[in-house]
Amino acid sequence: MPITSKYSDKEIETILTEMTDVLKKHNVKTDMAIMLIGNMATNVLNHNVPASQRKMIAQSFADALLASVND
Fold it and tell me: Which is an annotated Pfam family here (predicted)?
């Protein structure tokens, strides 16, 4: 069953493009980009998610990330 998002593909693509443009502007290498994205995810979890739900959401995020990577 496909996952349905409450956000439009257009909204997601627009923001993703802007974020990618910032990384390109600063000539960020792959390892640093991954580090920055991980730090951003940690910051969002720590500042916007109740402590009791953080590990569960982080695990769901990690599982989704692993599932989305092409082997």
Answer: DUF1414
